[in-house]
UniProtKB/TrEMBL annotation:
The keyword Cytoplasm applies. It is found in: Cytoplasm. Keywords: Cytoplasm, Phosphotransferase system. InterPro entries: HPr, HPr-like, HPr-like_sf, PTS_HPr_His_P_site, PTS_HPr_Ser_P_site. Its main location: cytoplasm. Residues 1-88 form the HPr domain. It comes from the Bacteria. The keyword Chloroplast does not apply. This is HPr family phosphocarrier protein. Belongs to the HPr family. It holds the Pfam family PTS-HPr.
Amino acid sequence: MIERELLIANKLGLHARATAKLVQVLSAYRSNATLNAKGREVNAKSIMGVMLLAAAYGTKVVLRLDGEDEAEAMDAAAALFERKFDEAG
């Protein structure tokens, strides 16, 4: 199991489009994924779960992955966060 703290740096936070991109990236891997923010932990492969976090710009989240491809999944997810979910601004 690995975990990493990530910063939401896109202006709109984890809104529907950003959440869908995150879920799509993580769903390509077999590892279990959870996202923790503001005292809540949700299934990071669930759009509804991630949306419930209501994580805005500047929020720190912890992504936890557990499985055979956890390192690859973490690299892909972290890259998405670093690219600000491919959004302008």
